[in-house]
Amino acid sequence: MSVILVFLLVIAGFAGWWLSHQRLMTKPWLEQGVAEDFVPFDRSGLPTAKIGLGVFLAVVGCLFALFTSAYFMRMALSDWQPLPMPRLLWLNTGMLVLSSIALQCASVAARKRQMDTVRLGLVAAGLTAIAFLIGQLMAWRDLTADGYFLASNPANSFFYLITGMHGLHIVGGLVGLSRTTAGAWNGARPERLRLSVELCAMYWHFLLFVWLAIFALLAGWAATFIDICRQLLT
Amino acid sequence: MVDVTPADAVPPAEVAEMELYHPHSWWTKYVFSQDAKVIAIQYSATATAIGLVALVLSWLMRLQLGFPGTFDFITPEAYYQFITMHGMIMVIYLLTALFLGGFGNYLIPLMVGARDMVFPYVNMLSYWIYLLAVLVLVSSFFAPGGPTGAGWTLYPPQAIMTGTPGGQEWGIILMLVSLILFIIGFTMGGLNYVVTVLQGRTRGMTMMRLPLTVWGIFTATVMALLAFPALFVACVMMLLDRVLGTSFFMPAVVEMGEQLQHNGGSPILFQHLFWFFGHPEVYIVALPAFGIVSDLISTHARKNIFGYRMMVWAIVGIGALSFVVWAHHMYVSGMHPYFGFFFATTTLIIAIPTAIKVYNWVLTLWRGDIHLTIPMLFAMAFIVTFVNGGLTGLFLGNVVVDVPLSDTMFVVAHFHMVMGVAPIVVIFGAIYHWYPKVTGRMLNETLGRFHFWVTFLGAYLIFFPMHYIGLMGVPRRYAEMTDVTVMTESAHHLNSFISIMAFIVGFAQIVFLFNLIWSIRHGREAGGNPWRATTLEWQTPQTPPAHGNFGKELPIVYRWAYDYSVPGAKEDFIPQNMPGTFGPSREPA
């Protein structure tokens, strides 16, 4: 359970930073009047939707940290047999990186109000994300063709479970992305479109980060890394 | 990231009423409503309905325990199904949903001075997914083999094996699917509660001016958002074990001389995941109760809350600590002794912030102008009950005491006191307190007092003897114990007594439900602020508050939520949105 505890420590760090700006040491019973006189930092200036997405991403991060914790605990048992990583996963990783880059471009273009670039970026991001999903499904098919079935070993089970869960989150993101894309064509208000594009980009970067982390986990590098950490600590 | 879109830069006080989604038809106004107040009532009604099912299940269990062998239809399988569904419904589908979905939805926007939740559409989806989860849960009663009988903790391997009711039938699958749906729905709602507190506060409403109710619900929601994923992971993995034959949790099992296809899984892994959710869950239910009780006591004792800052720090501290105590539910799982030592220490440390809260409640009452209204009675009942349940928690938090007591009725009595009776009396107190705001009418006083005394005394008559028979060694989880040495004749008599009391307390709840329905039409007119309270929800132009809560302009907050009996003020309460400076204590020291 150490992975999830480290994750929660990070969240606690954020929460502590935020709380430290909420003037927890004040004596509210002595302060009357409009609070603006003595509160420089109250609500965040960020759009509410971004804060909402940020909180949601913390929950998603928590979910994957828990899967990782379970992965390490189950891995320690004797029947664990690592499965080979399909080479295709590298190509898929590239697709997802391209997808993120495309959305980043769209987001920059949206700030400059270059509508054509925004549309191009959104479509490119959508297509590469779909390519990623198809690639993942093909990787699954390759593995089952080689006899690595879901139930035959816990390493396989975790592989399908975690990649599947990540894929589902991409599918959910595609729903949002397609709505944004439709908005870009149907002439949504520029500020509104910019916000949606930025939200998509934020979600995409996060899922790319999650993918890199679970790729490292499933390929076994994360375990090596943790072993080194453990040896350094003891 | 610093520059913001114009719509967000406008301070909330000037947000026009037009920004809200306005319903166009009866359906969107009362059924698929995006108004947090309607959603709150939908959540509460659904939670109450499913809670009644759980109440009936507890009666059936008590019939069996109090009068073993008398009722043929309560087979051992049925008994386990009753236990499982009673526990799961009460903890998750009633308490969590009612505190966060019900009270959270109703009170957060009103108390922070917002027109609605920040994402109303997602909020509406949250309720409908919750309803779906409840329906899936209910459907398991009608599935072949009936609901699961795995115990509310659903421990594998037994949860998905043949001997357990619903283990190889539909029961466990429907249970897991229902939980997964619940978590998805809750996450949608939870995002709203958190972000509304972060971003929706009206002008002048700083975090340190929030009523403690909002602090409690806010912190509990943050915890729930981080804890429920653990249950989600456990449910998904168990579902795969059950349906697709993986071995996340399932060890190699020989069943009826036949080797099952599972191999090498770890049931302890499930316990870790489950209790990583399960322990914070206790505080997810307790923190809103703490917050609500603080407000009830302050309002009905006409006195500011003692140690507001401490109360806030304690809420945050309890929330953080509750994530590092989960393994105290697993002392008997054969863990490393040092591990147990660590968790016993963290568990006992939680007693410190909790004790601070109890002292502060008592000190708020001290020399207050105590009005023994029904909400106040329930609030005081909570303090007593929570202290009681907390004290037995100190027993069970220690490994050496927990190991012999772990499988006895003592544990059942402990967690019913601390997590069953204590939050439920707060819910009752809160309903008596806010019902006038929701409906515009008071609940009937006589029926209310009857309800309080029967519930409070009855709950003690149920659970005090239960501690005692637990210490005698009577085990929990057994469907029938007629001829066992620990079941002395006195234990039998006590069991029958407990069962009779359980029936009486249960019937008192039906009186309460009658009161809820009867008073909508026939209750005394309440007016806008019957308790003369300071918080914003009592200052709305209409009662019940209209869509948008505050009419044309949002209130501006000038003071904290506890200005009661301020010397020099005209009345003994000063609403949060009243400008001006009052009281001699206000001069800078």
UniProtKB/TrEMBL annotation, chain A:
What are the UniProt keywords, alphabetically? Membrane, Transmembrane, Transmembrane helix
**Superkingdom of this protein's organism:** Bacteria
- TM segment ranges: 46-67, 88-111, 117-137, 158-182, 202-226
Q: How does it sit in the membrane?
A: Multi-pass membrane protein
Protein name listed in UniProt: Cytochrome c oxidase subunit 3
One of the record's GO cellular component terms: plasma membrane
Native organism taxonomy: Bacteria, Pseudomonadati, Pseudomonadota, Alphaproteobacteria, Hyphomicrobiales
Q: Matching PROSITE patterns, A to Z?
A: COX3
Q: Which stretches make up the Heme-copper oxidase subunit III family profile domain?
A: 1-223
**Sorted alphabetically, which SUPFAM superfamilies does this protein's record hold?**
Cytochrome c oxidase subunit III-like (SSF81452)
TrEMBL record, chain B:
GO molecular function terms listed in the Swiss-Prot or TrEMBL record: cytochrome-c oxidase activity; heme binding; metal ion binding
Biological process terms from the Gene Ontology for this record are: electron transport coupled proton transport; oxidative phosphorylation; respiratory electron transport chain
Kindly state which keywords UniProt assigns to this record, in alphabetical order.
Cell membrane, Copper, Electron transport, Heme, Iron, Membrane, Metal-binding, Respiratory chain, Translocase, Transmembrane, Transmembrane helix, Transport
Q: In which pathway does it act?
A: Energy metabolism; oxidative phosphorylation
- Organism superkingdom: Bacteria
Q: Which Gene3D superfamilies match?
A: Cytochrome c oxidase-like, subunit I domain
Q: Name one GO cellular component term.
A: plasma membrane
Task: Show the catalytic activity.
Answer: 4 Fe(II)-[cytochrome c] + O2 + 8 H(+)(in) = 4 Fe(III)-[cytochrome c] + 2 H2O + 4 H(+)(out)
Q: Which residues cross the membrane?
A: 38-60, 80-108, 128-150, 170-191, 212-240, 282-298, 310-332, 338-362, 374-397, 409-432, 452-474, 494-518
Q: What is its main location?
A: membrane
Query: Where found, per UniProt?
Result: Cell membrane; Membrane
Q: Name one Pfam family in it.
A: COX1
Give all residue intervals belonging to the Cytochrome oxidase subunit I profile domain: 21-558
Q: Where does the UniProt annotation place the signal sequence? A: none
Q: What does this protein do?
A: Cytochrome c oxidase is the component of the respiratory chain that catalyzes the reduction of oxygen to water. Subunits 1-3 form the functional core of the enzyme complex. CO I is the catalytic subunit of the enzyme. Electrons originating in cytochrome c are transferred via the copper A center of subunit 2 and heme A of subunit 1 to the bimetallic center formed by heme A3 and copper B.
Query: Which NCBIfam families has this protein been placed in?
Result: CtaD_CoxA
Q: Which family does it belong to?
A: Belongs to the heme-copper respiratory oxidase family.
Q: What is this protein's name? A: Cytochrome c oxidase subunit 1
Q: Which organism is it from?
A: Mesorhizobium neociceri
